[in-house]
Structures are given as C-alpha cells and as structure tokens.
Amino acid sequence: MGGVSATASPIANSSGSVTNQAIQVLQGPYITNTYGGGIQCQGPTRNFTPYVTGSASASKPYQDYYNDPVYDIGDNFGAFDENGNDIGDGIIDNPGDILFHKKTRTGQKDNYSLGVGFSMTWSTPTDKKLQDLCKEAAASNIAMMQQITANKRLDFEIARLKNCGTLMQQGISFHPRSPYYKVCADVVVQNVTTVKQHRHSISSSSDSSPQQTEALQSLHSEDAALLGAPLQTRPLVSYPE
Fold first, then answer.
1. CA neighbor of 67 nearest in space, from 103, 106, 13, 108
2. Do both 140 and 105 map to the same domain?
3. In this structure, are 166 and 131 located in the same domain?
4. CB count, 10 Å around CB of 12?
5. How do residues 128-187 score in pLDDT, each as one tens digit?
6. Looking at the domain assignment, is residue 63 inside a domain?
7. Residues 135 and 99 in one domain
C-alpha cells in the first residue's frame, strides 16, 4: 500500500480583551467671594474638563506566519493479509515523526484606540433674591470702607497742614535737600500777625549830656513824642523755600 500522510494539529485559540474607561467629573463648591464684615456671596460655577484616553494592545514578538508541523501517521506494517503482504495494524508506524512544516498565517494584529472629548457642568444658585441681597450688602460695605478710608485721609491731611503751618510760623522746616522736605512743601502760611520775641536797646539818661537832661525834664508829658519816633512793627510773612 502507498504511504498516507495527514496533518493532525487541532488548535483552539481563545482571546478576549475588556477595557473599562470612565470619565469622572468632580463638582466642587460654589465660588465664594468675601467682602469683609462677614459678607460672603456665592456665584455660579462652570466646570470644564477636557480628557484624552487611549489604549493599545499587541503581541510580542510579532509573527505573521508560523511553521506548522505535519506528522507521519502512516500505518503500513504490523499485520499481513491472506497473501502474506504487509498491511497496517491500526497503529502508526512512526509516531512523532515530522514529515515537513507548512506556513500557517497567525492573523495577529495590533489594536489601538484613541478617545478625545470634554465634559462640562454649569452650577448656579437657585435663589436669585438672596444673591441680589448679598450683592447689595457687598456694595454697601465697600462704599462704607471707601468712606472710612477717605475720612482717615482727610484727618491725616488736616493734621499735616496744621503741624507744618505751626512749624513754619516758628521758623522750623526741613532742609530743601531732605527727603522729608516734600512733606510740607505744599503748605502755605498767609496773613501772619505774630511778632517774634525780640529786644530793643534804649539808651539811659546817664549817657546824655547835662544840657539834654535838663531839656528833657523841662518838657511836658504831652511832648513825650519828642523823645523819639514810635516803634513800628511789620507783619512777618513766611514763605516756603
């Protein structure tokens, strides 16, 4: 009998892949604005979350074909027919012997996936009346703080004006090259009638001649103006340098 060859290579391949992807959006609290005085207002909140997801699966090393062995399953010996010829006995003559290899396609593929998108949520308070009241209270509190600041500024400027004017009347000022000279540079003192303390020297009668002394004694009190012209005072005006 002629030789018989067969390929007996049962193959059972099973593969599976499960990919679970989830995008989680975390919503935080409302944005809170604090204006002082215990005033806090919550405003609408917008959450924008972009995301990119991807996955890849592959087998290494990559093989597009593999050599599939073909085994010898010939059964030509082991028994005889009625004429004495060799016949098969149902047992493979050369078990495990490989006759040749044949190329078999694997069907192996690389898998890739890419996902791009975004999620967005919009959160806003539902009670508009409370929002309006909170905004009104915030505006009033800001106006009050601005007025308090203006009052303190006015107090500072008046105190600076008073102190600089008093010092300038006394002849006290910063040197023009001093970095603090500009503190009182814009202060002007006008209509000053105060006369500084001063002294005048008046000659005594002992310094006069006997004739002058006798003449002075003979004068009437109504002629006191003849003793000399009256003292004249002029207003002292200070100007900044």
1. 103
2. no
3. yes
4. 4
5. 888 888 889 999 999 999 999 999 999 999 999 999 999 998 889 999 999 999 999 999
6. yes
7. no
Residue at which a domain ends, from 188, 206, 229: 188
**Residue 154 identity:** L
Q: 98 and 150 in contact (C-beta within 8 Å)?
A: no
Instruction: Report if residue 142 sits inside a domain.
Output: yes
Specify if 239 maps to a domain: no
Token couple for 161: 């004006």
Q: How confident is the model at residue 35 (pLDDT cuts 50, 70, 90)?
A: confident
What is the spatial distance between Cα 158 and Cα 151, in angstroms, rounded to a whole number?
11
Beta bridge partners of 100: 70
Q: How far is CA 113 from the centre of its chain?
A: 37
Q: 76: closest CA among 89, 61, 67, 63?
A: 89
Structure tokens at 212: 């002058």
Give yes or no for a contact between 43 and 31, defined as CB atoms under 8 angstroms apart: yes
Terminal Cα-to-Cα distance of the chain (whole angstroms): 138
